[in-house]
Amino acid sequence: DAGITQSPRYKITETGRQVTLMCHQTWSHSYMFWYRQDLGHGLRLIYYSAAADITDKGEVPDGYVVSRSKTENFPLTLESATRSQTSVYFCASSRDTNSPLHFGNGTRLTVT
Amino acid sequence: GQQVMQIPQYQHVQEGEDFTTYCNSSTTLSNIQWYKQRPGGHPVFLIQLVKSGEVKKQKRLTFQFGEAKKNSSLHITATQTTDVGTYFCAGHANSGYALNFGKGTSLLVTP
């Protein structure tokens, strides 16, 4: 959907580097989410946020940091990238807890 | 914590055959959502089921929510090549607002 954009689409980084994945939505949705997708694991929740300045850990938060200073942005930072963090990362947003998720196009991250 | 399990992991059918994927939760769900992800794409919302025993149809797709609100199924009648992709179920536990996804069923349809 055009209303939620992720950048970059592709990223290659080295082990130990810090990298930030960006997510921006134009719907003013309260809820935002970060998932990672790996073969055999489906979509696993990393972090989520119910509103600006409110964030919660998901299933696999270790090694990641998030912030939500503005409703429309929800960046995901890998403080010291590891090869196990090579994955496709999806950001999503929803209007409320019972509404569907709208996903961005994803960021394919490779850690060498 | 809540777990959502989906079977089968893969399914390969001939065009025209039917297809079913099943979703089971370890806990009661407040609702269940289904998503489709085309190869190389992102998950796209298909439908949400809320009521116990609910059945919804979208053309050739039939979605069911179990009476106990712990399982669900998606059935595709007479598959077409456009049905290729991975189908995910996702559920909210009664106490949480984050969706937990199943691992998905990858459907391959050959003409």
Can you describe this structure?
The complex is a heterodimer of chains A (112) and B (111). With 112 residues, chain A is mainly beta. Helices cover 0% and strands 52% of the residues of chain A. Chain A has no helices and eleven strands. Chain A has strands at residues 4-7, 10-13, 19-25, 31-38, 42-51, 54-57, 64-66, 76-78, 87-94, 102-103, 107-111. In chain A, a hairpin with a 7-residue loop joins strand 9 (87-94) and strand 10 (102-103). Chain A starts with a strand and ends with a strand. Chain B is mostly beta strands and 111 residues long. In chain B, 0% of the residues lie in helices and 57% in strands. Chain B has strands at 4-7, 10-14, 19-25, 29-37, 44-49, 55-58, 61-65, 71-76, 85-93, 100-101, 105-110. In chain B, the strands form two sheets. In chain B, strands 2, 4, 5, 9, 10 and 11 form a six-stranded mixed sheet that branches. A five-stranded antiparallel sheet of chain B has the order 1-3-8-7-6, with no helix packed on it. Chain B is globular. Chain A binds chain B through residues 31, 33, 35, 40-45, 48, 50, 56, 58-59, 90, 97-98, 100-106, and chain B through 1, 6, 30-31, 33, 35, 41-45, 48, 50, 88, 90, 92, 97-104.
Structure at a glance:
The complex is a heterodimer of chains A (112) and B (111). Helices cover 0% and strands 52% of the residues of chain A. Chain A has no helices and eleven strands.
